[in-house]
Design goal:
The structure is a homodimer. Chain A is mainly α. Chain A has 15 helices and two strands. A two-stranded antiparallel sheet of chain A has the order 1-2. Chain A is globular, with a radius of gyration of 19 Å.
Chain lengths: 294, 294
């Protein structure tokens, strides 16, 4: 089974646990699927699974649970971030956002249910390796909630004075460090040596996202553009210009590859990061318009 | 230490884990505390802790984690239910709701962070008894999210046709069955025999809530009244009348006491349920106005 197929199967299995059977509220059950499939690039589960495979992947069900839990949390954050009180987005991944398609109450509940489901599917595998599962749950929680997870990252935008380093680390970096560390934990390895790889991929992703937000049109991106500029959010393109941000992105990804700990699948993992570097580095179809916006 | 003091200490300790230290977004950190203290009656943690103590309470830290996790989930549900897209409530427990005091984005994030924190504080105690903790996390998840938890209960209100039994069991009953079962699990007992006690207390609580919504004024209740009538929600007072609903409440609580499994602290637990029965049964200062509303 290819990596993509394995990831999609794991996510679909997790969603069907949440959907249940019998007397369930059908619209929320449907929204859980709508919010998670068809997915985006599945970057976080891909990184998680790649790290676990590089470390031997001796308990594949733990790896599957870790990868899908990460994606459920990521999708929950997208659903809540799209709400009218945040980005007020109408479109996500080329289709109406959950609150547009289902209603705002169901969007709040979809996010809540996906967060809960992420922890449930991890706990369900506890019998295989209780220590690993407990550490994975704690890692995922700390990278999702307060004081340093993606909720904290989003909350920095409500502060009068922003700690930029804490903001970026929490808002974008947190789930990438969760991805590398949960991959290592799923395969029975210590998580600490895997922090840097996740942090650097997160940093690269933030710069790439800034570039995409500045360079692409809404149709290519499948969501509204110019949001950073509109909301006055800190942005690498505003600080460094388009070419400067592209150079920065390449340097960070070089550092990410250099940080990979020694492990059986080290070379293959470096290859995966290189492939992502290619995908992340944007071609610039619309630099003129972007520079006007920035 | 009295039960109330122990509960407040456990919740405060959990919140301080979520608040962290150093560079954290201060308003969200403050909102975590605002949403959870001063609390309401702490009914769910009281039930959970009472059951654990009736079963021997051999790992008090597990009991504390279970009780506070339940209250964090309950408070998260209040914060999200108060949002403009649900009840649009301005007042909760006699003070402005979180979205009024802090903003709507911070209210969404407060709920999300409290949900995550509930699972984290359980997982942190895994070393004491990994099997119990994994079962507590699964129990809490299934009573919080989809397909049968309080999220599912809330989602029934978005369905064209409502399964009333599934709706009540999920919306109000779920966290009460979680409370009795997590209390039993924390003390190393099987959770199944404790389901009925939780289910009946939940049923009683729903009827009592319907009575309070119909009978009390906003100042006594600390939140808007007549909400069930306003939103056309199913309500025991509408079905049975005020006196009928009060009789029903007493019958259910009698059944709850009769359902308590044999355990060392059985008599004391029955006393606790009787004390709650007294508190739950409303005196009716304003029956005329309520009957007009109903």
């Amino acid at each position: 089974m290819g990596l993509n197929t394995r990831i999609e199967a794991a996510i679909a299995a997790a969603i069907s646990v949440g959907q249940g059977s019998g007397a369930v509220p059908g619209r929320l059950a449907s929204a859980l699927d709508y919010a998670t499939a068809p997915g985006g690039a599945r970057i976080r589960p891909t990184i998680c699974m790649s790290v676990a495979m590089a470390c031997g992947d001796d308990k594949p069900r733990l790896t599957d649970a870790a990868a899908s839990a990460l994606e459920l949390i990521h999708c929950a954050s997208l659903v809540h971030d799209d709400l009218p009180c945040f980005d007020n987005a109408d479109v996500r991944r080329g289709k109406p956002t959950v609150h547009r398609a289902y209603s705002e109450p169901l969007a709040v509940l979809t996010g809540d249910s996906l967060i809960v489901l992420a922890f449930e599917i991890l706990a369900r595998e506890s019998g295989l390796a209780p220590d690993r599962v407990a550490q994975m749950i704690i890692t995922l929680a700390r990278r999702t909630g307060m004081p340093g997870g993606i909720c904290a990252g989003q909350a920095w935008e409500s502060e009068a004075e922003v700690n930029l380093s804490a903001y970026h680390q929490a808002k974008t970096g947190a789930l990438f460090t969760a991805a590398t560390q949960m991959g290592a934990l799923a395969a029975g390895q210590e998580p600490e040596p895997w922090f840097e790889l996740g942090a650097r991929i997160g940093e690269a992703f933030q710069v790439a996202d800034d570039l995409r937000d500045a360079l692409y049109d809404a149709e290519t991106l499948g969501k509204p553009v110019g949001q950073d500029h509109l909301h006055g959010r800190p942005n690498a393109v505003a600080q460094l210009g388009v070419q400067g941000a592209i150079s920065r992105l390449r340097d960070i990804l070089g550092g990410a590859i250099a940080s990979i700990p020694h492990c059986p699948g080290e070379a293959q993992l470096a290859e995966m990061v290189r492939a992502y570097a290619e995908r992340l580095t944007p071609v610039a179809p619309n630099i003129g318009a972007a520079q006007q916006r920035v």
